[in-house]
Amino acid sequence: MFINIEPMPDDDAAASRCRAYLKTMVLALIALGVAIGGLMLAMDPYGVFATRLVPDHLFAPDRRLTFGGDRVIKAIVMQAQNPRTVVAGSSRVAIGFDPQSPALRGLDLYNAGLAGAAAPEILGSARYAAATVPALNRIVLCLEFDLFFQPLGEVSDFEDSAFAGRSLTFGKFRVTYALEAIATAFRKIPALIAGRPIAGTLSIRGWLIRMPQLRPVPLRSFFRQELATLGVTSLHKSARYLSDTETRYHDLHNTLRVLQQRGINVDIVLTPVHAWRLDLIQEFGLWPAYEMWKRRITTIVAAVSSDGAKSTLRLFDFNVVADMTSEAVAPDAGSQAVRYFHESSHFYPIVGDYVFKIMDGSEPVEPNTGFGRLLTPDILDAHMQLARHNLDDWRASHPDEVAVVVAALPKDQR
Amino acid sequence: LLFNSPVFLFVFLPVTLAGFLFLVGLNRPALTVPWLLAASMVFYGWWSPFFLLVLVGSTLINWTIADTMARRPQQRRLLLMAGLIWNLGLLGYFKYADFFLTTVDSLWGANFVLVHVILPLGISFFTFQKIAYLVDNYRGQARAGTLLEFSLFVFFFPQLIAGPIVHHAEIMPQLSEMMVGRLSTRRSIWVNLAVGGTLLIMGLAKKVVVADQLAPYSSTVFFLADHDTPIGAVAAWSGVLAFTAQLYFDFSGYSDMAIGLARMFGVRLPANFNSPYQSLSIIEFWRRWHVTLSRFLRDYLYIPLGGNRYGRPRQYANLMIVMLLGGLWHGAGWTYVLWGGVHGMYLLAAHAWQRWSPWRIAPALGWALTLLAVVIAWTLFRSGDLACAENLLTGMAFGHGIVTEGSGLRPIRGIILALLALALCVAAPNSQTILRSFYPTLGPVSEPSSPWRTRLVWVPSTGMALAASLGLAAITVLSWNSSEFLYFQF
After folding, report:
1. Residue B436 to residue A29, Cβ atoms within 8 A
2. pTM over 0.95
3. Contact state of B477 with A232 under an 8 Å Cβ cutoff
4. B330 carries an active-site annotation
């Protein structure tokens, strides 16, 4: 049914009412902006303004309230912290390296791990650190095969961050009006009024203290689920971009040269993952591409190193089957049963500490597995053969776990 | 440029609007059309300068064909064929080439190399608009406008990417009025800004405050289903209901934004949604959902096929063809075709019931059945493949138990939020009804079906201004991570 409506007369009265409406709207919006901005400065949920009015015993000054907005925030905080060492990478880094752990405390380390970061983001954050952090003398670049070839994420705040060239002022404005922080700050107000302390999710040094979700039990089922979804998806995406890998290698080469020219020592870490993930690459038929990836990075590192380098450039391979990375995930494992890995992708700081100990020589490289081996072109073939052999051994000795990995594959790839 | 991106809201729109108002203020209305055309080209070229050239080329070709038709009427059939081949060929290449090759491959193992072309934004929408223009010129039902008017008709940024699918007879006369200063007077500017701005905020709120918040609940469930995790009943219903609400709020929100943006420049667009989830039958649903698409399919496909003029069997066959092609228009995949086919079956059943059944369905039952049918069909629409759809439909029928084992899903919250959003769709009046005193869209506005819905009427008051600013603040804080509109892929 339709009705005829008399139009609002196009007269001065209507125009004047609409004009007043627009004026009120704009003024109210400004007032709201000021109110929200005031709350955010008082709570300083990201710890970027140093204006927090909450007493330290209720909200520790070295903690952040939320884990969102990491691209924008980490660019701001990294510069403010002026660390000597930066570790860059994905969420594996964010979770796996605690700058305040006893093993790493002396390094004056900032954790620049960005959840889901592809190579352009990791390399961009490294270049940004080299250009803007005066005390910096070492960068640890953690690279991963399954993220290396992917472009920027569809939903990422990277392009709004100083890593991508945006101003820090813009970043601060953006985080002042970020919903996650506003909502969390609001939610915490009753606790603060009642005098109850609130816990942060991230340390101001960039370490993700608590994962966003708990691990449901049985743990093997959780591992399988993560592998079947995120693991498979990331390899699917990587496979899509394998036809055009030169851009990424070129970007890596250029970044390493820039870092070298600035006299910054660089350690590239091929990040540890659980054996399930390595087996997934194999089952996916991407093992040749994976080995080629290691080979190309080794070649690039060797080329840049021989190019009149002013600082050290090293490449370490932790992306192999080893004691830590082949930790068993029993069918009936409870939530505390696995010590080194949250799931097949993310490792805990106990592994991160061990990685640094091997790089810095306080722990030996595992000769039987090559875990933490310094890669150079002359040992590469032997190392990769050992890695293949160890994966085959693991497969032969863990048929039940291999069956789980195979079950995680899409039907047409089993 | 996304309508909810800060660059659009805080740079592109203010600059475009300021330039437009400046020209109106200078009393140079003839320049407003070229100004809006230039701005619209920047809007499209922001995404891809290459595809801007493609669209410019296609616009020139279409206008030349229409212009030649007017000058050489004896060749108009040939010219129409050429225009249709050009437009459908472009759409076919960019949108359906890989789909066609994949289908041939799977049927005959031909092993074709896929072309992997990028789909130009909005191609499905502007292709239809240009086809309608050519067909109506061929029929002698259209006035061949100037190149400038035709170009802005195609490029006008509020409707360029995802509709409404506007008709030349609705827009080009308004552009002629704009050129001579009759569309935006000094008085009407304030009304247009207030009404258009309010619609824009309402659309943004639908998209950012509702649709984007539901998206994680639907996408997680469909993602797991796509990866062979047997989905339990609670999660399946959570995902599908969340998608049902998300799609409506996303697409109708986009349409509100488009209508509001156009109105800010004094142009009125047709309504695209009319509370479809309040429909009491599937026939009514298709009169209320994506109205401008249904209108196009009716006028340029269903009626030329014969419509209902050649008896019931032919009418039903025509309906099915229209729904199958309508499904394919939504996406190059068999799930979309199947979705269209399922809706075709629904329509046939509804027509048959109306004709032959002695009973009439009670309104409440009709509404419930219609919504259930629509929800089930959305499962096909959103699924990546048939296996995913089967997984979810089995789950919805309790075939995989109640909970989804080992997934870490928390579907109860998803169900609650989806039901709240759907309740809003069912109970509240839609945006054009709320703004009905100010003629927000072209054509009549339907009367709210229950008296209490009529109470919510927008007037330019202080209270409404405060509500709008609150909405805008919520949108700003929620929209830092711009996500793409669902219909951009179509």
Report:
1. no
2. no
3. no
4. yes
